Amino acid sequence: MILLDGLRVRVGRFDLVDITFEVATGGYALIIGPTGSGKTTLLDAIAGHTSLLAGRVWTHGEDVTGLPPEKRRLGIVYQQYHLFPHLSVGENIAYGLRGQPIAGEAADARVQALAALLGITSLLGRGVHGLSGGEQQRVAIARALAPRPSVLLLDEPFAAVDPATRTALRRELRALHEAEGITTLQVTHDFDDALRLGDMVAVMADGRIVQQGRPEEVFRFPNSAFVARFVGTGNVIAGQVERTGPLEADGRFAARFVSGALELHVIAEREGAAHAVIRPEDLLLSAAPLPASIRNRIEAVVERVEHLGPVVQVQLAAGRDLVAAVTVATATELGLRAGVRVWLGLKATAVHLV
Amino acid sequence: MPAGTGAPACPNIGSPHAGRLATGPLELPEPPLTHTRFSAPRLALALLGSILILFIVGPLVRLLFMASPAGLGRALADPELQASIVLTVLCASAATAIAALLGVPLAYLLARARFPGRRLLQGIVDLPVVVPHPVAGIALLLFLGRHSLVGGALASAGLEFVSHVPGIVAGMLFVSAPLLVSGAREAFATVDPKLERVARSLGDTAWASFRRVTLPLAGRGILAGSILAWARSVSEFGSIVILTYNPKVASILIFDRFTAYGLSAAVPAAVLLLMVALAVFALVRLVEPKEQR
Description:
The structure holds two protein chains of two kinds. Chain A is an alpha+beta fold. Chain A folds into two domains: about 1-225, Rossmann fold, CATH 3.40.50.300; about 235-354, CATH 2.40.50.100. Chain A is built from nine helices and 20 strands. In chain A, strand 9 and strand 10 (about 210-215) form a beta hairpin. In chain A, helix 3 crosses helix 4 (about 135-145). Chain A is elongated, with a radius of gyration of 24 Å. Chain B has a single domain, classed as MetI-like fold, CATH 1.10.3720. The longest helix of chain B is centred in the N-terminal third of the chain and has 34 residues, at about 80-110. In chain B, helix 1 crosses helix 12 (about 265-285), helix 2 (about 70-75) crosses helix 12 (about 265-285) and helix 11 (about 250-260) runs antiparallel to helix 12. Chain B is mostly helical. The interface of A and B includes residues 132 and 144 of A.
């Protein structure tokens, strides 16, 4: 378990404030923030390399706030890996095993086991110069894990590798996390990492955590327009909520969301200014007018069609610009291309108001 | 590490280059390969450059050929010259050891710590470079002489500088310390602080991470700086001639023979000292990180 309790950290000229976050034992959590939001400094502070202005850090029930870095048993992997250039791959991995109760053969076995787990056994005797980004990454992770730290801290581990390697590394990291059962905290600017790896996520903005929860939850129900845009939920539209129906027992009511020429039937909790968050895959596309059972039926014109592998992203003009995602089959069937007129269907419950 | 790919010529601390090792020795970009075609401007550059090269090589070669093998043999057998070279080497070594002992920690501070007055401190360390050496000698004489506060106190403790061997070491230390400190500071600056952080998180104390990571990575640079400081000490004349004329270090002995007996008496000693200097120079080239050559 790692518990950050009200951390305050100076990052250049601004502060990260009130960082409170808990990662369960064996969990994988991510802190997400835009580039330059002080995520590396936060990790440095947790690891004891930068002092805290306020707050406490707990790992597995122990308050480590006053301990020097070497006493905290936190493994850290920086974005640029920072392998020791004067040591071989094997020596890098074994670095933290010196002075441990295990030594000699046991240490060697640990290095071999980790290298096997990460598929870098053939590199052990080599120097670290000339390793690819992905290889350096694996060595850095093995080095951090070797002394069996209680917590693993990862700083943007996939930022410096190509997309193919990123996918492979994510999968390996997930497998490794399951094999070693180590509590992991990663900082990233990429919400994809959270969706694929994490069981907890915290989104940072302006030096604070603005939302935390399970990744799917945050993705599905962002609590602000910022989070919605940042995690890439899809369409985020500013407008006004006007009540049209009676207040239900759960505190919600039927309402109209108006944004320029776009009007939507929605279920709301409060009136006034709001943002409507609509996932691209929740927008139904049809060549003919849709049945009345679908609350929102909107006429739209296709502006652009982008093929993104198995998914086709369609940009539409419907009073406001909207983005929809359909399968390749649907796109072909509807003959989607710029200028084509289509009908959009959207359930009232698929509009998330923040 | 790929060389000559247009990497910036700055120490790559916190380098943003993706996938690169974030540390390593200072990388100087190789000049782009250009065709060596005849062109008037380039010929002019080459001409100007060769004049300077000849001006450096010419006198030294001339000197080396001046001394006959028999003359060199006699010089080697000359007890006064032998004693003088031994004295020079020992004093230079002592000055370098003191400079390293006091200067390496200072260099680490200058490279790592951010504190008010750091630039001022850096300036002070470099100051001896701009002080003419006889001026340094006079300043040291006033500071370390028997009648000064510091010199008097040291003299009563049995450490006399003026006209004694410690005076030679003091002069050498004053003029050579900046070379060692800047060499070590630059070497430390090329070691990414994040490497030390990684080492700390892997269980090293601050001292252990310095010993296991920083020192090995900066070691060659520090050694190169030390050898330069040592060579500077061996060649020192201006301040020593004022502080301690006797016993004579090699440079003073050469000057003394030249003024007392003329050129032919000074040449064999000069050639010997030149050979010592060239040997050190070759050593520096061997030790220096490849990328800095």
